Amino acid sequence: MRFALNHIAAPKLPLPDFFAAARELGVTEVEIRNDLPDVLSAWRPEDVKAEAEKAGVTIVSINALYPFNVWGGDLPARAEDMADYAAACGAKALVMCPLNDGTKVTFDSLVGALTAMKTILDTRGLTGLVEPLGFPVSSLRTKAEAIRAIEAAGGEGTYKVMHDTFHHHLAGETEVFPDWTGLVHISGVTDPAVSVADMLDAHRVLVDGADRVENLAQIRALLDAGYDGPFSFEPFAPEVHDAADPKGALKASMAFVSAQA
Hints:
Pfam families: AP_endonuc_2. By secondary structure, the protein is α/β, with parallel strands linked by helices. The protein is built from 10 helices and 8 strands. The radius of gyration is 17 Å and the shape is globular.
């Protein structure tokens, strides 16, 4: 197996330092973000590309377009801007997250958004990574539904799904889809007091032996089924972001997962 790093794993590192830290950890694939830190508003895409090339890393995705499944308002323009930026900085894919506020979104709206987005992605040579969110309030919780919608939109050559171990567990989804999986996000939950229904991004830490969301079982299932892409660390917990030695913490988690999986 091989690892990737999402910038949220060490958000206090400036972009060049993040790229350098990845290489020092033996990682050559990274994800940049438009939320925390917002690289897109602070960096010109050509400068991001130059920094990545200098560090010897590949940008596998920009994370994320939201809410991709409600196609209206300023979303089409934001989608084009983000896709332009992704292509210019050398990113391979654009992560796409669904509306996550308790509002229902119809299957037809999901298919319509995927159809509209397909042209934007195809003209720029990008893959769309559809990431179901397992939260109870999410409008798209499972990979099975995402795949059904991708097929309905004729998007088999454009889209892959994101397998996020945290969201997979929250959604109660058991099937993995190795042929459809473009990238895997990994993060653990170790707080013994929080129920699965109440788990939030702030609970997501690096994977270790106290993990409650079955990262190791999911990773093994994906590898056994033939998935050969990277596993990208995506922890959101403040204690991870505030770590005195983020590189050391990541190194320990990488060693644990490698030894167990």
